[in-house]
Each structure stands twice: as structure tokens, then as C-alpha cells.
Design goal:
Length: 600
């Protein structure tokens, strides 16, 4: 690819070469005309020197006397084409020559008609090629022709010399012209080169911003300077527009990337043009799919919805169940056609949590209704029996009354636990204070011994320091109390309970171990579910509602902690609580790992 300067230089050189090529063939014609003109001039000079002779004999003598003639051969021919004199013919022909010798040459015939004639011909008499020039003149009332001959080899050599000279001159001029042209073009186009050099890094991708052209490198104040200033002005406007578009694009992309919905854009051929981060989490797709057909995602329901959206030119929605990495998800998807150049936008909303919450709500209402319905039915049955049979034996009445009271207490506990769950869901930050976990564990142990005096309980804790934690003291006490109560209830008498308390720079660890009946492996996965009980009869006998461990887990999670269990059937169970420490100041500001705002 030639530059602008090189192209101009090449064009000029080509024009000059064309001129030389056209002129070269004309050299021989020009030299030939010059020779003819010279021969004519010499012939006229010779005629002027001999035409004053008194007669033909004197004419011939004068012609013979012209020793300085440039012509190789000279002849005088009269109007009857008879040779009066020939400088070579008589010597060559000898006795055969006479003045009655008649010739018929083209140049002589042309001279008698037009006044002069020229012809090139090979002379058999002299065995050489000659250029012949004939000139008509009048002598004493008669017409004669002076025929001259000049060796053609000299003319040929003259033409050759002229051609060589012309080529040498043309070559020298071409070199000089080329150098002058190159320097002139280089000087004139130097401002353009500065402009190109300034813009080239941006063109090659080495610069991200359009550069300004340095006006100090452009010495001219003419058109090129005006061009540079115009380009600088355009560059500034274009860069401003690019920056604006880039900012707008980045802002829109940031918005799309921060959405909790997945967004996928496709063109009119259903090729993926955009995928945000949330979409990569919801379905098996990543940004490497950009540029590929949506069909490669292998989600036929999505693909069919996009096709229908494009065909019908209207927004369509659908709820789809998918399984990703073994996890079942429920997505609400909306496909909407793009305006302009076609294509569509696919919006994905993860409704798994909503469906799970709705399902949990339905299960909770069903379980709560069932748990309340059972004691109410018992109370109603015994109340109606007492009402309809006032004369029942006293011991039967006392037994019925005890069952009514026991089921009323069961309903009261159930309602209390439900209110506790509702209370846990809304913990105000004002209730979070610095809590002495050592004292809290000791207090729970004392309370348990009041209810179950026979329980053997041991506590392992640091003796050299207090273990403190930012928490809702009453709720944390409830969680620990529920764990040790379960350990006492579900262990053979006397129950043996061991509480271990440890801490480090980040966490407080509380474990409650017993040697009770244990939890079957099949039930361990659901043990923290609401209203779930392993042995329903035993649980009802002990006054349990299936909410205790659910309350414990909810309290721990609201404190950003975790709870886990390890249980062997017939050997016992160990619950382990891990609670993160948080900073606390005098103004009751609590700083948690994920912001305490999640508690409020």
C-alpha cells in the first residue's frame, strides 16, 4: 500500500516516462527532416555558385571546381532526364557513359513537378544506400535539376547519436526531476504526514482516545494548518461523544449487572448478544456463549418462547422448572421483542424462594391448624362428656379435668412458641447487648436443675477469662435452654448432659452433648423443620410441639451463626453452635460481619 506522497511521486515519474516514450520515436523523424533541410540549403548554395556560368560547359566546369561540397555525389539532369554531368558515373561506367544517358529517379521526377524531391535508395552503382535530394533550377531559359547524394550511413549514425544523446539527457532530467519532485512533494505533504502520525496510534488501537494534532509541527499557516485545526475540533467533539456513549453504556451495563433478574439479549437470528451475571447463576450459560445461537444453551423451553416472541411480536411469559447442578429451581421468564433491528430480551426471575416460602406457609398453617385442632378436639370431647354426664364418678371427672388442663397447657405452649417465632423474625437492634455467655450457660443449667433435679450436668469453659458476645440475651438463653431441655427429656434417667464453651478471635462455640436415645439418620435432615418430630407420641407425652429445634435454629441464624448436630442412635446427640463475635460500643452500635441491619 503506497502512501499519498509515494503515489504522487509515482504519478509524476510515470507522466515523465510516458513523455520520453512518446518523444523517442519522433527523434529519427526530426533528424531526418533536419538532414533534408540541410541538404536543401547546401544544394541552393551550390546552385547559386554555378548558375551564373555562360553555357553548359562552363556550368559543368564550375560544378567540378566545387571541392568543398558536402555531397558525395552530384549530378545535373536536364528537362529530358538526360544526365549532363555526374561526379561518379563517368568514372565508373567509363566509355559507356554519354550525355545521352537518361535516368528515371523518384526524387528527380518529384523535383521537376514540385521543385524539390527527396528519396532514400540503395545504389547498385556504388553498392551503398544513399539519401538523394534533387532541386530544380533555371539556367538560360531551360529547366535543370541538381541531384545530390549523401551516404545514408552518416545519417543513420547521426540519428543514433541524437537518440543516445536524447536518452542520456532524458535520464539526467528524469533523475533531476524525480529528486526535485520528491523533495517538493515531501515538503508539501509533511503537514499531512504529521497529521497521519498523530492519528495512527488511535487507528492501530494503541491509544484509546483520539489524539490532538500538535500545531507546532505544522509550519504552514495555509490549508494544512486549517485542516489540522478542523481535525482537532472534530476529534474533540467525537471524543466527547464517544466518552458520553461509553459512560452511558457502562452505566446501563452496571445497572443490568446489578439486577437481581437474569437478562439475556438475542438478535433477530436468536444469536446471543448479551448475558448479565445473574443469568449465568440461574441457568447453565456464561459470557462465552455470546455470539453463539441460543439453541446451544440446550434449554428448549427458553428457545421456544423466544421463537414465539419473535413470530408474534409481543411479550410472552412462562413459569419454568429447571434442574441445574442437581438443584431444582423455579423461574418466571419474560420474553419481550426488541424495537428496531429485531431480536428479543429474555428476563429471568428466580421464584424458587417465593414458591418455597409459599409452600412453607401452607405447610405451617396446615401443621399449626393440626397441632391446635388435636387438643381442641380432646378438650371439646371431655367437656361435652362432663356436660352431658354430670353424675360421672369423681375419679373419672378428675381424670377428664386433668386431660383438659393438660391440652390447654399444650395449646398455650404452642401459641407461645408461635409468638416466639414471630418475635425472632423481628429483632430490634436495641435488644442486642454484650452478653456474658459463661453466666448465661450457668443460669440455664440452674433453671434445668429446678425442673429436672436428677439431671447430671457438667460445664467445660475457660476459667481465666469471660466469654462475651453481642446478642439478644433472652433469645440466646431460650436457644440454649431448648437444647438442654431436649437433652433431659430424651435421655434415660438420670440424664447426663455436658456443655462445652470455647471461643477464639472470631467465634464463640457452644456444644451440648447428651447420652440419650439419639436421632435416627433418616430424621436428622429434617430435625430443624417446623412441627417435625421423630416420635410423635413421645413428643406429645412430653408436651412437645415440634417447634423447639426450629426456634433454636432461627435464633442462631438471626445472630449470623450456624448450628449442626451429630447423633448416634442409642448413644446420644451433640448439638454445636458457632456464633460470630461482633464489635460493640457505648452507643449500642453493633457491627456484624454482614451488617446488623439484617437483624432489624
Amino acid at each position: 500500500m503506497f502512501s499519498f506522497r509515494q503515489k504522487i511521486f509515482i504519478y509524476y515519474v510515470i507522466v515523465f516516462l510516458v513523455f520520453i516514450i512518446v518523444m523517442f520515436p519522433l527523434i529519427s523523424n526530426w533528424v531526418e527532416k533536419l538532414v533534408i533541410q540541410t541538404m536543401e540549403t547546401r544544394a541552393l548554395e551550390l546552385i547559386e555558385q554555378i548558375k551564373d556560368a555562360p553555357n553548359n560547359e562552363a556550368l559543368i566546369r564550375r560544378l567540378k571546381a566545387q571541392k568543398g561540397s558536402v555531397f558525395f555525389r552530384v549530378s545535373i539532369i536536364d528537362s529530358e532526364h538526360k544526365v549532363l554531368y555526374d561526379s561518379h558515373m563517368k568514372r565508373i561506367l567509363g566509355p559507356k557513359f554519354s550525355q545521352e544517358y537518361v535516368v528515371d529517379h523518384p526524387e528527380v521526377n518529384q523535383a521537376f513537378i514540385e521543385g524539390k524531391g527527396y528519396h532514400e535508395e540503395f545504389s547498385k552503382l556504388l553498392n551503398h544506400k544513399f539519401s538523394y535530394f534533387a532541386k530544380r533550377f533555371d539556367f538560360h531559359g531551360k529547366t535543370y535539376v541538381l541531384r545530390t547524394a549523401f551516404p545514408y550511413q552518416y545519417i543513420s549514425q547521426l540519428i543514433h547519436d541524437f537518440e543516445i544523446g536524447f536518452l542520456g539527457f532524458a535520464t539526467a532530467m528524469l533523475l533531476l526531476f524525480s529528486l526535485m519532485t520528491w523533495f517538493i512533494i515531501n515538503y508539501l505533504t509533511k503537514p499531512i504526514q504529521h497529521i497521519i502520525n498523530a492519528v495512527k496510534p488511535y487507528q492501530e488501537g494503541k491509544e484509546t482516545h483520539l489524539p490532538d494534532i500538535d500545531m507546532s509541527t505544522i509550519k504552514s499557516q495555509g490549508d494544512f494548518a486549517q485542516l489540522a485545526m478542523t481535525l482537532n475540533s472534530l476529534s474533540a467533539k467525537i471524543q466527547s461523544h464517544i466518552d458520553s456513549l461509553t459512560h452511558e453504556r457502562n452505566e446501563k451495563e452496571a445497572i443490568l449487572e446489578s439486577l437481581v433478574e437474569g437478562v439475556i439479549a438475542v438478535d433477530d437470528k436468536l444469536k446471543i448478544s448479551y448475558v448479565n451475571n445473574m443469568a449465568t447463576k440461574l441457568i447453565p450459560i456464561n459470557k462465552d456463549y455470546i455470539g453463539e445461537s441460543f439453541h446451544t444453551v440446550k434449554q428448549e423451553s427458553f428457545y421456544d418462547l423466544l421463537q414465539s416472541c419473535q413470530q408474534k411480536k409481543t411479550a410472552l411469559s412462562e413459569t419454568i422448572h429447571i434442574i441445574t447442578d442437581g438443584k431444582r429451581s423455579i423461574l418466571d421468564i419474560v420474553a419481550s421483542p426488541k424495537k428496531g433491528n429485531g431480536g428479543a430480551i429474555l428476563v429471568l426471575q428466580d421464584k424458587t424462594a417465593h414458591h418455597k416460602i409459599a409452600e412453607m406457609r401452607r405447610d405451617f398453617i396446615a401443621n399449626a391448624s393440626h397441632e391446635l385442632k388435636t387438643p381442641i378436639t380432646i378438650i371439646r370431647g371431655f367437656a361435652e362428656a362432663l356436660h352431658d354426664n354430670p353424675n360421672l364418678p369423681r375419679n373419672v371427672q378428675e381424670e377428664a379435668t386433668k386431660k383438659i388442663v393438660r391440652n390447654c397447657q399444650r395449646m398455650a405452649n404452642l401459641i407461645k412458641n408461635l409468638l416466639t417465632l414471630a418475635d425472632i423474625e423481628n429483632i430490634p437492634s436495641s435488644r442486642l447487648i454484650e452478653c456474658d455467655v459463661n453466666a448465661l450457660v450457668q443460669q440455664c443449667s440452674s433453671t434445668l436443675l429446678e425442673v429436672f433435679p436428677e439431671v447430671q450436668i457438667s460445664i467445660e469453659k475457660p476459667e481465666d477469662r469471660d466469654v462475651t458476645l453481642i446478642a439478644d440475651t433472652s433469645l440466646l438463653e431460650l436457644a440454649i435452654m431448648n437444647l438442654i431441655l431436649n437433652a433431659a427429656k430424651y435421655s434415660p434417667k438420670p440424664a447426663q448432659i455436658h456443655i462445652t464453651l470455647t471461643d477464639d478471635d472470631k467465634n464463640v462455640n457452644i456444644s451440648v452433648s447428651d447420652k440419650g436415645i439419639g436421632i435416627p439418620a433418616a430424621d436428622q435432615e429434617h430435625i430443624f423443620d417446623r412441627f417435625y418430630t421423630v416420635d410423635k407420641a413421645h413428643s406429645q407425652k412430653m408436651g412437645g410441639s415440634g417447634l423447639g429445634l426450629s426456634i433454636v435454629k432461627t435464633i442462631i441464624e438471626k445472630h449470623f451463626g450456624t448450628i449442626s448436630l451429630k447423633s448416634d442412635l442409642g448413644k446420644g446427640t451433640t448439638f454445636t453452635i458457632i456464633l460470630p463475635k461482633r464489635e460493640y460500643d457505648d452507643e449500642e452500635n453493633v457491627k456484624s460481619p454482614n451488617s446488623i441491619n439484617r437483624l432489624s
